Amino acid sequence: MMSVVFWLVLVAVEGTATVDYAWTEMGHNQQIVRVITRDKSCPDINIDGLIQPMKPRSDSPPPNFDIQVCECELPAGAQKVSVGDKTLPVVGKKPKRIAIIGDTGCRILNVPGYEILQNCNGAAGYGTPWPFPAIADAVAAGNPDLIIHLGDYHYRGFPCPQGNKGCAGPAGNNWPAWEADFFAPARNLLPKAPWVFVRGNHESCQRAWLGWFYLLAPGPLSTDPWQPEQCQLVSEPYAVSFDNLKLLVQDSANVPYEPGENGKTAALVAKYAETYNQLNAMASADSDNWFLSHEPIWGIQSATTAKGLLLLQLQLTLQAALKKAQGGAFSPHIGLLLSGHAHLFESFTFRDGRPPMMVVGNSGTKLSPAITPQALAQFKMLEALGVAPDDFTSEDRFGYAFADETPAGRRITLHHLDGTVSRRFLVTDKKLVPQPAK
Ligand SMILES: [Fe+2]
């Protein structure tokens, strides 16, 4: 009995807790360490030798999240950070190698007449295995200094049909589904480098917002945060600043496809216009500036319908909002737009002064159909987007990207699942200039 009491006291004094996952993420010019534990108490964090308790992210977790998220904001200049035996990465002033992924979860859509059941478990006979676990490991092996996830983490919205060994497992707005879709496959990647998490439409107020705000959103929570009316439609925009690069992050999770005429969408357009004003004002004249938003303001969505391949222009509400912003355009300091959402790789260079646009939405979830030259011509898509045919590329293969600093500018390399390089671009002077892939 004595030894049990002594052990309990020791645990309380040392502030240990079983840490299942630990990572560093970027908020508005701040670094935050988060951990997930199944214990009631939060562990201590060691920041450059100073030991302090981490704080619970909220008084209680959302329903069906039988875990605790603990967090601690790092002071500027923190060098050595650990929680228990886990060392946490801290960001440098000039990240040289930035990994870019998007749309990673395993799709379980089980609606009569519209079924998409990915092979989450890699079971034989259930089609191409969901590739995010392999992609996460490949990105970790590439030793990034920073990792950008462009949104859409949670795809297990519906229960897998009974007897399907490919998608059998957790589903719904709960911790086991989040763990299976993101945390478990990213186990090796999570502690590799600090993350910038962009919110996707799968994390909207209609879908997986509880997990988004509890686990990944960088901002503070409101009191009583799990009441549905507390879900923020548009979170505060923020900047992540380095000496050589500024990332400007917009939340487009709840954006409707078209602006529409009713008061609700008009209010949303005004809100997004405000975020463009805020983020344009944060763009720095002294560094590169990249604008991150899950939904591409200029992009192409492809879908298979009964009538064949359909192409849709993205994103009409955001376009309307940018027109309403001051100057009706991105700041001239912004040199690249990064998005996901379309489950492909896409790149666009515009010849009218708009920043070039890259879509990396091919890092795990079921791919969209390939954009064919015939469909581009049929839907006059490049004309609608104001892009010359030579200035557009797309790929319908799984992959991820690395953006490396070079003397000539950032070089973005697109990798396939097996690591082979499929494309390279130099980001310079408002263009994505193709480079030899070898
Ligand atoms: Fe999306």
Q: What does this protein look like?
A:
There is one protein chain. By secondary structure, this protein is α+β, with helices and mostly antiparallel strands. The protein folds into two domains: 17-86; 97-435, Metallo-dependent phosphatases (Purple Acid Phosphatase, chain A, domain 2), CATH 3.60.21.10. The chain is built from eight helices and 26 strands. Strand 20 and strand 21 (357-360) form a beta hairpin. Helix 5 (263-282) crosses helix 6 (316-324). The radius of gyration is 22 Å and the shape is globular. Residues 1-14 have low confidence and may be disordered. Residues 152, 200-202, 294, 341 line the site of fe (ii) ion. The site of fe (ii) ion has 6 residues, from loops.
Provide a concise account of the structure shown:
With about 450 residues, this protein is an alpha+beta fold. The protein has helices spanning about 1-15, 130-140, 175-185, 210-215, 265-280, 315-325, 375-380, 380-385, and strands spanning about 20-25, 30-35, 45, 50-55, 55, 70-75, 80-85, 85-90, 95-100, 110, 115, 145-150, 195, 240, 245-250, 290-295, 300-305, 310-315, 335-340, 345-350, 355-360, 390-395, 400-405, 410-415, 420-430, 430-435. The relative contact order is 0.12.
Q: What is the strand tally?
A: 26
β-sheet strand percentage: 25-35%
Distance between the termini: 67 Å
The CATH architecture designation of the largest domain is: 4-Layer Sandwich
CATH homologous superfamily label of the largest domain: Metallo-dependent phosphatases
| Count of domains | 2
The largest sheet is: 7 strands, mixed
Shape estimate: globular
| Annotated CATH topology of the largest domain | Purple Acid Phosphatase, chain A, domain 2
Mean pLDDT: 94
**Chemical compounds bound to the protein:** fe (ii) ion
What class, by secondary structure content? alpha+beta
